[in-house]
Amino acid sequence: MERRRFLRAAAVAGIPVTLAGCTNDGDGGATPTDTDEPTPTPTEAMGTTSDQMTPTDESTATPTDEATATESPTPTGTPTPVPDMEVTVAPSGNLRFDPASFTISAGDTVLWTWDGSGHNVKPDGIPSDSDWTGTPGDNLTTYGSDYSYVYTFDVPGSYDYKCIPHQSSGMTASFTVE
Fold this sequence. Notes:
Layout: H1 2-13, H2 42-45, E1 85-89, E2 97-98, E3 101-104, E4 108-114, E5 122-125, E6 148-153, E7 157-162, E8 172-177
Parallel strand pairs: 1-4, 3-8
Antiparallel strand pairs: 1-2, 4-6, 5-7, 7-8
């Protein structure tokens, strides 16, 4: 019976086995054969040892129907300044900025949030000391809904800006930094 168990284990493991001495001499026993190599036991043939078969204490995750609460990740890097003024770009899909004009103090931050797609915010007239260039990218780069752009204005003066693709439709605005 041990030989049959070995052959099954070897077949499952994909180990080629030469069937030498597997004949029956008629008395119910197998005929012994001389071999140069000892026949491996099933565990040796399958490449396992008792150490490998020992169960571990590692737990296995079991799915559940209940959600597990996790902590929110801690923000890293440079924190986004809290805006002093919020402007909606294309509110409800309209080709305008809301508000179209406002006044802020030097050092204040403006947050533009897109409500419609295909728009940008580009300066059309700024104070000579200002380095404001509007939304990232060239004049043809536009952004989709849920995009946000933030900038802190330190240079006082009058600022005019527009959405390049929709300026001919009147999508322009202005603000003053005091």
